[in-house]
Design brief:
heterodimer, A: mainly alpha, two-stranded antiparallel sheet, globular, disordered N terminus, B: 330 residues, mainly alpha, ABC transporter involved in vitamin B12 uptake, BtuC, two-stranded antiparallel ribbon, 77% helix
Chain lengths: 337, 330
């Protein structure tokens, strides 16, 4: 910022960043309020919702979605997208489960995370080096990775029989909190620091905000893009490990529509599709909201297809809000400039 | 970059387009189709049979009919990822209506329903100003959910009306399947729309520069909404033939259809940036995918390779496009 040209109107910039920050806080609060309403409503109409077992199960479901949603938030902040996370999640879950029959849990988790990283890097390289649109590349990768998962398993299920302590990743408790929630909080803290307090995060937001300006100011766009997609791959792999420890039996048909959930929690949490900033707190709240709705519908014995419907409608709703917000920012900018 | 510079680039592009590499990258899919057919016909005796040819044409027409509409939509600079859900919903509708309405009315109702859902997609994308691919991803979930709820799960409903099923299984001169003939008709109509009508010129204008089209006073939203409606209609048409061929319908009858359709369009050479498209390319692309899938079947490759191959072809076709625009710009 120190060597910006003089014609830049700092008051405008300041009011813009103020407006976005205000909206970001308001949106986190908005999602949080919505979450509270749904939780209270569910506790009243769905007996058995507000029990320790159900709450911790809901927390586990939310954490698995949130981890990938946090990675996705990074990608969306950069103006990118990853439709392959569902396939990556299932392939890495299969890798983790298969490796467990040969090696110890730490090594199998490492192998799973590395394969997620590799797949993410492939996405990033294709997008940045070949200059291909992110959503088509990841759309193609979604199909390829799903195919590989089916080929590896031959369409069969992989059961985790050895190392039953692997299940502790799912049902273990630390200070009464489920381990998946702790994992999610760690990912949240790491990504928050990365996004707000490192050059890497600032570069990612700069690329999402204005790609041309980012190029001119000397940001290495290719390297940042590859790193961000690598990061998304790793978060999808963490979700994959969590999923395999939750189910203890995995097959290649899991995780369909997971990309939709990850995108929905990001956008619902207040990360704009236009790029430039990421709202990680909102993503976590939105993941909790999604899991709470699913759990309440389950308890009320609403057949699961209505959950697809709810997810689709929620996504369209969140996107419509996003449009309204962008219009609001543009308007407030115009009136103050 | 100002307008004259763009125009110059276009002119230069034409001059260079005549060079060998430019020609190859422009018509590579036609070359690929001919080469793969020749090789497969030489290597495998079963591939040469009339039955296999008929099957390839039949398979090509399902993806091909959807791809015709999708080409127009991509030319206008948008996408529709909801076609699989839309097709499933239309299939279920057909299975419900057929016993009471008869063949003709059912087909008309299915097409009308498809156009209606397409209009809905268009409204969501243009009026709520949501990027097309993510809005239609959400709509896909909604359509699938509705189809699931309607059929109480992934229940398969049998559709056994001989006069309807002949739409999918009938042939002309024992070689050309009826869906293939309809596919040719669809492409002719779409060609007329894209290259010989005012609306086609509007589509291309909106696709190459939305801002310019708006400034010129074109009703951009209306143009896009109509393109979505065309995609809806084409998908419903494909749904009619698929239901007739399978003689059953279910919510998940077309899983992965959106991927195949978009891959067909992209591999045919239509640019994802919008503004230009080739229906001849999409037509060839549909045949090419059907040939490859039949080859995989004949060579006894595990069905799961289908996913891998489709994805790889989609990404490599994008690579070829990038190469072509590089050549054109150079």
């Amino acid at each position: 910022m120190s060597n910006s040209p003089e014609w830049l109107n700092f008051r405008t910039l300041f009011s813009l960043s103020n407006a976005t920050r205000f909206i970001q806080v308001a949106e986190s609060l908005g999602v949080f309020a919505l979450l509270m309403i749904v939780v209270i409503g569910a506790s009243i109409i769905a007996p058995g919702f507000f029990t320790y077992t159900n709450l911790s199960n809901t927390l586990i479901t939310a954490s698995i979605t949130a981890v990938t949603g946090l990675g996705m938030t990074f990608a969306i902040a950069m103006g990118g997208f990853d439709l392959s996370v569902g396939s990556v999640q299932v392939l890495t879950a299969i890798v983790a489960a298969s490796l467990l029959s040969a090696v110890d849990p730490p090594l199998s988790i490492l192998g799973s995370l590395l394969s997620g990283l590799a797949l993410g890097l492939v996405n990033g390289v294709l997008i940045s080096k070949l200059r291909l649109p992110a959503f088509v590349v990841t759309f193609g990768m979604m199909s390829i990775v799903r195919g590989v998962a089916l080929l590896v398993t031959q369409g069969q299920s992989v059961m985790i029989t050895r190392h039953s302590e692997f299940g502790l990743l799912n049902n273990g408790k630390i200070l009464g909190l489920p381990v998946p929630f702790i994992i999610m909080m760690i990912v949240f803290v790491v990504l928050s620091v990365l996004l707000k307090h490192t050059p890497f995060g600032r570069h990612a937001c700069a690329i999402g905000g204005n790609r041309a300006a980012a190029t001119v100011s000397g940001i290495n766009i290719d390297r940042t893009t590859i790193a961000v997609f690598g990061l998304v791959g790793v978060t999808a792999a963490i979700s994959g490990v969590m999923l395999s420890s939750q189910l203890m039996i995995v097959d290649a048909t899991l995780g369909t529509g997971f990309e939709l959930q990850a995108i929905t929690v990001s956008v619902l949490g207040g990360t704009s599709l236009s790029g430039g900033h990421g709202n990680l707190v909102g993503t976590v709240f939105a993941a909790l909201l999604l899991a709470t709705i699913a759990s309440a519908l389950n308890i009320l014995k609403v057949i699961s297809f209505y959950q697809y419907l709810a997810l689709g409608l929620l996504l369209i709703f969140a996107l419509a809000i996003d449009t309204a917000r962008r219009a609001f920012i543009a308007k407030s900018l115009l009136s103050r400039a | 970059m100002d307008l004259s510079e763009t125009a110059n680039r276009k002119v230069n592009g034409h001059a260079y387009g005549m060079s060998a590499l430019g020609f190859l990258t422009r018509y590579y899919i036609q070359f690929l189709l001919v080469i793969s057919v020749v090789i497969l016909a030489l290597v495998n005796p079963y591939f040469r049979t009339v039955g296999n040819l008929e099957n390839i044409l039949l398979q090509a027409s399902f993806a091909g009919i959807g791809a015709a509409g999708m080409t127009l939509l991509i030319v206008s600079g948008a996408f529709d990822l909801s076609v699989a859900g839309l097709l499933g919903l239309c299939g279920v509708l057909i299975s419900e209506l057929l016993p009471s309405l008869g063949v003709v009315l059912t087909v008309v109702a299915a097409l009308f329903f498809g156009v209606l859902l397409g209009l809905l997609n268009g409204l969501v994308v243009t009026k709520l100003r949501i990027p097309a691919f993510i809005a239609t991803l959400g709509m896909m979930n909604i359509y699938l959910a509705l189809a699931f709820i309607w059929t109480q799960g992934s229940r398969v409903i049998s559709v056994s009306d001989p006069s309807f099923n002949v739409l999918g299984t009938g042939t002309w001169f024992e070689v050309l399947p009826i869906p293939f003939l309809i596919m040719i008709a669809t492409y002719l109509v779409c060609y007329g729309i894209l290259n010989r009508s005012v609306y086609g010129r509007c589509l291309r204008a909106v696709g190459s520069s939305e801002i310019a089209a708006r400034t010129a006073g074109l009703p951009v939203d209306l143009i896009r909404i109509l393109a979505f409606a065309i995609v809806g209609g084409c998908s419903a048409l494909a749904g009619v033939f698929l239901t007739a061929e399978l003689s059953s319908a279910s919510a998940i009858m077309a899983t992965g259809y959106e991927l195949t359709v978009i891959a067909v369009v992209v591999i045919g050479g239509t640019s994802l940036k919008g503004g230009e498209g080739t229906l001849f390319g999409s037509f060839t692309g549909a045949l090419f995918f059907a040939v490859i899938s039949s080859a995989l079947n004949i060579l006894n490759v595990a069905a799961y390779w289908q996913y891998v191959v489709t994805g790889i072809f989609l990404i490599s076709a994008l690579g070829v496009q990038a190469l072509r625009s590089y050549i054109v710009v150079e």
